[in-house]
Amino acid sequence: MPDVTKTATAAAEDAVATPSVDVSGVKGEKARSLWGDAWSDLRRNPYFIVSSVLIFFLLLIAAFPSLFTSASPTTGDLVKHYVGKPELGDIGSPGWLGYDIQGRSVYARLIYGTRASIIVGICVTAIVTVVGGITGMIAGYFGGWIDALMSRVTDIFFGIPFLLGAMVVLQAFVERTVWVVVFALAFLGWTQMARVMRGAVITVKHADYVHAAKALGAGTSRILFRHILPNAMAPVIVVATIALGGYISAEATLSYLGLGLASPTVSWGVDISAGVQAIRTSQHILLYPSIMLSLTVLAFIMLGEAVRNALDPKLR
């Protein structure tokens, strides 16, 4: 025979789990949550549409680069060196955007360089969101000495300059692959996410539906993951979306300085660094990877801004 008390408790918790928009006065209209309202706003936001299309296109390039070019990004032909200007009329050909100093197709390197940048951005964002989110959630919910200890650890990491600290970490590795760069950026990048999550949890844990769940006998894990986490994720998602573009930019900066990715890995930062050598004679080597990097970072920043406007009722 089912436990009637537990069933009633769970049903009561579900009833107070997440606040929703009260539209009971409108006949036949179903109540919508914060996420439902946000999605409704996003679908009408031109910035969200443009950035989503651009990001989808970048993800497609990163996943299937061979669909966009048949040229090799690492095979060079010194006959076709950087003195040869771009063949802009021959769209999609290996020489469309010219060749670099080693006779490699700039267009092919742009296409294949997308993969490294996207992998670094997505993986770093995922790691810092999980690590920072868990740290901030525990600190914000339990408070007391746990909050004090975790906050001091966070402050120590937060006090280390991000790029400078990443340079020091990367110097410890002989071979700097994509995953080494991901580790270095994630090792120092989780602090901002921890602070955002901590502040959101402190605000949410005083809500009436959390107190009601405690009164009904809900356990700590159920309160954290069923009641607090869904209602504290909005600012974290906004910060993570905007930060993703920043991590892509940080990877390119480290590669430009010679401390991040290096050949034979294909990266926009590596190409920008190589393009500086020929900036007086062949500006296209520097120009095109810089444009791709800027468009990618701009797309994620626009997406983050659109999500922030949709999730913050004060900005509607």
Description:
The chain has 316 residues and is an all-alpha fold. Helix content is 66%, strand content 0%. It is built from 11 helices and no strands. It has helices spanning 4-15, 34-42, 46-63, 106-142, 144-158, 162-171, 178-204, 208-215, 220-256, 268-275, 284-311. The longest helix is centred in the middle third of the chain and has 37 residues, at 106-142. The chain is elongated. The model is unreliable at 1-29 (pLDDT under 50).
Which key features would you list for this structure?
mainly alpha; elongated; 11 helices; disordered N terminus; 316 residues
Draw up the topology in text:
Elements: H1 4-15, H2 34-42, H3 46-63, H4 106-142, H5 144-158, H6 162-171, H7 178-204, H8 208-215, H9 220-256, H10 268-275, H11 284-311
Biggest sheet features: none
Structural class: mainly alpha
Radius of gyration: 24 Å
Strand content: under 5%
Number of distinct beta strands: 0
Mean pLDDT: 82
Query: How large is the count of helical segments?
Result: 11
pLDDT < 50 stretches: 1-29
Q: How far is the N terminus from the C terminus?
A: 50 Å
Q: Which outline best applies?
A: elongated
Specify the helix fraction band: 55-70%
Helix-strand string: HHHHHHHHHHH
Q: Brief overview, please?
A:
Helices cover about 65% and strands about 0% of the residues.
